[in-house]
Amino acid sequence: MLDDFMVRAALAGLGVVLAAAPLGCFVVWRRMAFFGAATAHAAVLGVAISLALSVSVFAGVLAVALLMAILVTLTSGRGYAMDTLLGVMAHSSLAFGLVAVSFLTDVRIDLMAYLFGDILAVGRDDLAVIWSGSLLVLTLMAWRWQPLLLATVSEDLAYAEGGSPRRESLYLTVALAVVVAVAIKVVGVLLIAALLIIPAATARAFSTTPEAMAGGAAVVGVGSVLLGLWGSWELDTPTGPTIVCVATVAFLLITSLARLTRARALH
Amino acid sequence: MTTNTAMHPTHSPTALIEANDLCVGFGGRSVLEHIDLALNPGEIVTVVGPNGSGKSTLLRALIGAIDPDRGQVRKAAGLRIGYVPQRLHIDPTLPLSVRRFLNLPGRHPRAQVDKALARAGIPQQADTAMTQLSGGQFQRALMARALLDEPDLLMLDEASQGLDQTGTADFYRQLEVIRDEIGCGILMVSHDLHVVMRAADRVICINHHICCQGRPEAVTAAPEYRALFGTDDETALAIFRHDPHQHPHDHDDEVRDAG
To answer: What CATH number was assigned to the domain covering residues A5-190?
Structure first.
């Protein structure tokens, strides 16, 4: 079964969206959308470094994404607004990454694959990495779900009750770096943030509890991957972007539908 | 009671929470200087002070949200704190009912949640989304959550915000009932001077440092207090009246205060 590249692509996509669902909810609730995008952009630098050093791309991206996320967390609140800092770091690491890759003469062709993903080229080894990372993130989210929610609602409440919101946000940072590292092969650095945010935002329209929203985001994500794969096969379009397009259409349809039903309920 | 005896509080082994020589600064600006205070079980203590005097910072340092530059905070072993923050923003993208908010981070029996909501005066709102509550209801939901586990120490930061004048008076009367029911100590910050003075056993007046403290009638007579708040009740009343009526949604004062 794993011999079929479409099956491997589907499994890779599912692994990513399942981990991205609960994490994406926190990204939305905590207004970290730009933080997610910035961490993803920094991944290009990770790609360049791992190609130059001939180490696993996954390891290089994970290291740079972690470094980036921790650097932003540490430097925030020291004079510059968070989004200014993120803007500087995200785009400069993207630029440095692109320049660094240009020195590596034999990998120029690969660059598009890292920017937009190459899900159809996922191998068995990639699948193992993606699912390990995905299960790690899901375990972390399930374990820290309640304290993370409380820290999201109010850090002060968490402190007063003996919690440690700083440690909780570090868990989120690590989870984000892992998702970026495993998603790079699937949708590429430029579209990773879309997989985090769009399913969660779509699920918000029909959710009344945080848990339902995470579950709903997973369903939307799974649907987008499967429909996107099928669509890109039928229409011969790039797969990663097609998945994101499907998710966006789902977001528009479901959000408008929810708004309509709510308006009708009021009359 | 003289106003400066309490500048050096006796180290009480029974104190719920105790701060010694607490100093906090932000970016080179000193916000709290050498704060010593202790709060005993069953005691209602009010911290008053002008805007920006460090009242909220004091509470946040006591709960551990701010690391002090100097000094320390000692809590009784296993101390349960019920904290009602000055402001709390829940992002509208987070679907959270009042019941779920009370069950965060630990689940509680349904009846216990209902009892806490009834005690806080919002028995009908259990299934309402937090973001759909009015200002007063939101404040009561925070109160309900703080009371849920019958805390040893209740800490309130401008907790009567969003309540109208009668609501505020009821609120502070209710605090004494709560203290008698669950026997907790209460430490609150407020600038609703007029009402607060009646409910407190002890008033601590701060302006970065502790200016004076003692029984309410002693503090209002103290020259340090008069220098900060004026000399008569009418001034206090004017401050009290000014806020809820003129700027019901203006929290700028609190922002500066928290800084």
So the answer is: 1.10.3470.10
